[in-house]
């Protein structure tokens, strides 16, 4: 999982992070009940997980999506499979809204989220600097049709 995350970091379009966190920090930042790994013949092809967006109880059903696919597996439907499972598992865990912040240059991730029913709710301009360059972030969300109706 760490190697795949590092591949995402290397693209410059996956995250503001510059290094992978150690396991303890990653584990503390992601919901324990919704973590998925895609494998083929024992090789990890990608992973997906959810992060809490707020400690306030009114946001208990809102989570942020992280999906990373190994470079060698991109374009083969792994992301779509991870997203499908992530949505099902999130709804089983009582999550009613999934959100994502995506660099606009990451067109594959935006397309993946759109295919899964996410809609663009805005664009945060010049949200943060990365390697001395200001970066925008597209905000996307998906409201469950099963939970919180």
Report what the structure shows.
- There is one protein chain.
- With 149 residues, the protein is of the alpha+beta class.
- The chain is 28% helix and 36% strand.
- It has four helices and six strands, in the order ααβββαβαββ.
Q: Describe the biggest sheet?
A: 6 strands, mixed
From the alpha-carbon coordinates, what is the Rg to the nearest angstrom? Answer: 15 Å
Low-confidence stretches: none
Order of the strands making up the biggest sheet: 1-2-3-4-6-5
Number of strands: 6
Tally the helices. Answer: 4
Instruction: State the helical fraction.
Output: 25-40%
The rounded distance between the terminal residues' Cα atoms is 35 Å
Query: Mean of the pLDDT scores?
Result: 92
SSE sequence, one letter per element? HHEEEHEHEE
What is the overall silhouette?
Answer: globular
Structural class: alpha+beta
- What is the strand content? 35-45%
């Amino acid at each position: 999982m760490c190697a795949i995350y590092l591949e995402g970091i290397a693209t410059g379009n996956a995250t503001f992070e510059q290094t992978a966190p150690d396991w303890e920090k990653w584990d503390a930042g992601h919901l324990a009940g919704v973590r998925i790994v895609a494998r083929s013949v024992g090789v990890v092809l990608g992973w997906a997980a959810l992060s809490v967006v707020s400690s306030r109880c009114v946001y208990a059903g809102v989570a942020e999506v992280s999906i990373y696919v190994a470079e060698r597996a991109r374009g083969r439907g792994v992301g779509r499979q991870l997203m499908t499972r992530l949505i099902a598992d999130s709804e089983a865990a009582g999550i009613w809204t999934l959100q994502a912040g995506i660099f606009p240059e990451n067109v594959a991730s935006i397309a993946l989220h759109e295919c899964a029913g996410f809609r663009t709710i805005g664009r945060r301009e010049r949200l943060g600097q990365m390697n001395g360059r200001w970066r925008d972030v597209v905000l996307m969300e998906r409201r469950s049709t099963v939970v919180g109706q």
